[in-house]
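Translate structure to sequence.
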């Protein structure tokens, strides 16, 4: 395997983290540990933001150099003691020197990085089936070829990419920094994003625990487990069903199948029919991924790469939550500078999670004890203090202030992201979800059940709910709502929202973990009411897909902080139960949750590593092995300089082809689906049907019709298409012959065969004209 590259990337991450440490420490100066676990994501935000904006002038070494220069300048500005400098001494400012916990977070990063390197080394290929690897690798390759941003779309030649590509941009910058080819950078970057996520979860949960004077290490390790290793309850449910008596097996399996995407036979299959894939497809019409599945599957996708920066947003919100009211300058800096800058880059990395950064900001202000109004206006704050309002009115004013603070920060963040939003993210609209499409309670429990058990036990314990009647009445009301409106989420997370909000706004012994609980509950509830109407999958598939990953990450950190605290805390919840017995019951619940969420990892990883071949991190080595006839043609296109336009058969998905067949070959998610463009970054006129979601059906189908005409139409039509799109090369391979039959260009001059074997012919277009 490429061990030298692994070491090179680890050194690069270490240098970036060292430079990012002073900036993270200043951002998180009010947190225990002062931003432990967030040095690397902070550095990546600086390098990525500067690289992105400079890249619109020139992308490549200059953009990378500008990003690194900005990071070094910020590190010096925030890390060096100015008083010592005046005395010509070099000293770190107080609080910037890494504590011992930084070394432990670095070990967590190293272990997580090595874990994913091992996972990817036995299955490194960017196969088109089972995910979006052709899309992700194509974005990386087109950025590798780009000299200016936004890069040209490899599936829609002569137009910029209309997709969030910020994570691939960071990967390309790291690729340039380490001198790594994209075929290796793909998998090394996957390992880096995972390790950054897990170490950020470790650092954030540890800080939350230390805020409450709890033992921080169990919380940090628990968060790393829940975020990086744990799974939903699908796998353990199947194991439980398999262990039941025969009659009960069938009844329970039928009940689960009726409320999920599984058949009764699939539920009854047990371990023998285990597949790592099925745990991510639970709720009908949706995708329900969690980090271990996502990184095991191996897409370099936006919803994965955005997670470390979502947790950085949570850390900034936590720092604001902890900042004293008197430190107004710092509060305003966090709200109006740090959050908008992070959100601006996050929009380009993963647009779906950008609103969540502002949601976390809102909750940190709304659920915090400090008055939000001074952040907006000292005069309004003074006027409010002079009034003797009813507590309910005062609470309403606090909420309105939080909304105002978030709105102003949101405007600033949107302004920073406006060029991208106007281009790549336009054309979507929010729609109301029909009652019939909402998730059932069993579906919600299969996906979120482990977290819900932890959070309800924790909040009820901390709230010391000894009057059961009001709670029963509240749950009954929510149950009535759920039954009449088919809104099971009201029962699943409705009480969490109420209990969490009440705990934060009263004197109960809770901390920022409860803010994260409320944040995740809010996201789960929102996707049961509305969804983003778009072409990427049926109905709300993409909305749930992209949102549930955020929920998992936020709730994973919250569970890591809450579960050890629940086990250790005596509290006043169970005065009738002897302390030792109470502790044993709490420990038993914690063990049950961990045992319920770990079987997937054991089964999936053992299956993944079974019969592993010689390890490599080369994402494209499979091409020579599986497609030896087309590999030389792919290599020929990959060696072309710049981004010449290629003509190849469109991967039209469900749309019919020129002969009316349905679907028309090559379709999507197969080797024949635009392999040359996807594996080289050389743009084709019309690639995958995904472009319908990016640009609309008519724009894409117009190109499809033009490409079909170029291969099958008259010489005049062929020449017109070649000239319209400035085509420089024409690809004729298995996909083109499957779609069009025998392909010839009789009657067209100016096409020269520059590559030819039994599988593929590549023509260079010099001066196309009709042979008369």
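Result:
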């Amino acid at each position: 395997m490429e061990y030298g590259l692994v070491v090179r990337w680890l050194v690069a991450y270490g240098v970036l983290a060292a430079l990012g440490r002073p900036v993270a420490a200043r951002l998180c100066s009010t947190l225990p540990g002062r931003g432990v676990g967030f040095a690397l994501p902070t550095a990546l935000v600086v390098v990525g933001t500067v690289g992105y904006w400079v890249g619109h002038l020139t992308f490549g070494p200059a953009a990378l150099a500008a990003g690194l220069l900005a990071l070094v300048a910020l590190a010096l500005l925030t890390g060096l003691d100015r008083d010592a400098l005046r005395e010509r001494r070099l000293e770190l400012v107080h609080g910037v020197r890494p504590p011992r916990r930084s070394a432990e977070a670095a070990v967590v990063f190293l272990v997580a990085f090595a874990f994913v390197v091992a996972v990817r080394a036995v299955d490194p290929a960017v196969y088109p089936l089972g995910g979006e690897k052709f899309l992700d690798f194509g974005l990386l390759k087109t950025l590798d070829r780009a000299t200016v941003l936004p890069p040209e779309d490899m599936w829609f030649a002569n137009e910029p990419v209309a997709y969030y590509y910020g994570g691939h941009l960071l990967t390309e910058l790291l690729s340039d920094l380490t001198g790594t080819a994209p075929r290796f950078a793909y998998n090394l970057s996957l390992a880096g994003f995972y390790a950054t996520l897990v170490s950020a979860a470790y650092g954030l949960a540890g800080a939350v625990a230390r805020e409450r004077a709890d033992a921080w290490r169990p919380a940090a390790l628990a968060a790393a487990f829940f975020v990086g290793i744990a799974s939903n309850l699908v796998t353990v449910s199947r194991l439980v069903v398999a262990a039941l008596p025969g009659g009960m097996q069938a009844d329970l399996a039928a009940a689960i199948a009726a409320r999920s995407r599984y058949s009764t036979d699939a539920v009854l299959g047990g371990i023998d029919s285990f597949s790592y894939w099925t745990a991510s497809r639970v709720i009908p019409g949706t995708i329900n991924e969690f980090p271990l599945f996502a990184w095991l599957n191996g897409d370099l996708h936006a919803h994965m790469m955005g997670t470390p920066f979502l947790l950085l947003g949570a850390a900034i919100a936590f720092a604001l939550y902890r900042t004293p009211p008197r430190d107004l300058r710092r509060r305003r800096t966090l709200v109006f500078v740090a959050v908008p800058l992070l959100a601006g880059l996050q929009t380009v990395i993963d647009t779906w999670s950008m609103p969540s950064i502002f949601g976390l900001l809102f909750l940190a202000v709304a659920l915090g004890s400090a008055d939000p109004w001074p952040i907006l206006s000292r005069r309004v704050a003074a006027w409010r203090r002079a009034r003797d309002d009813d507590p309910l009115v005062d609470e309403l004013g606090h909420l309105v202030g939080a909304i105002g603070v978030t709105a102003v920060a949101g405007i600033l963040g949107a302004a920073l992201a406006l060029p991208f939003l106007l281009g790549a993210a336009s054309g979507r609209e929010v729609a109301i979800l029909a009652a019939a499409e909402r998730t059932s309670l069993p579906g919600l429990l299969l996906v979120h059940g482990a977290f819900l058990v932890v959070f309800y036990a924790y909040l009820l314990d901390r709230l010391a709910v000894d009057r059961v009647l009001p709670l029963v009445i509240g749950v009954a009301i929510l149950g009535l709502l759920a039954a009449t409106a088919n809104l099971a989420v009201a029962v699943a997370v409705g009480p969490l929202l109420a209990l969490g909000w009440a705990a934060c706004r009263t004197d109960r012994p809770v901390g920022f973990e409860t803010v994260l609980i409320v944040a995740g509950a809010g996201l789960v509830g929102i996707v049961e009411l509305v969804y983003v109407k778009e072409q990427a999958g049926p109905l709300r598939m993409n909305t749930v897909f992209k949102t549930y990953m955020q929920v998992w990450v936020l709730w994973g950190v919250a569970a890591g902080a809450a579960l050890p605290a629940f086990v250790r805390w005596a509290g006043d919840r169970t005065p009738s139960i002897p302390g030792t017995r109470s502790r044993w019951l709490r420990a038993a619940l914690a063990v049950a949750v961990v045992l319920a969420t770990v079987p997937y990892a054991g089964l999936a990883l053992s299956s993944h590593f079974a019969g592993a071949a010689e390890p490599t991190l080369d994402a494209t080595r499979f091409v020579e092995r599986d497609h030896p006839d087309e590999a030389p043609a792919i290599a020929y296109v990959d060696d072309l300089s710049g981004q010449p336009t290629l003509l190849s058969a469109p991967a039209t998905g469900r749309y019919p082809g020129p002969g009316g067949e349905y679907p028309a070959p090559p379709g999507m998610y197969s080797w024949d689906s635009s392999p040359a463009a996807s594996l080289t970054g050389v743009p084709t006129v019309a690639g995958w049907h995904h472009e319908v979601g990016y640009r609309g059906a008519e724009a894409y189908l117009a190109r499809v019709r033009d490409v079909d005409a170029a291969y099958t139409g008259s010489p005049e039509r062929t020449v017109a298409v070649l000239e319209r799109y400035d085509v420089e090369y024409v690809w004729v391979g298995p996909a083109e012959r499957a779609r069009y039959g025998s392909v010839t260009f009789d009657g067209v001059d100016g096409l020269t065969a520059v590559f030819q074997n039994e599988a593929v012919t590549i023509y260079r277009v010099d001066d196309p004209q009709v042979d008369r």
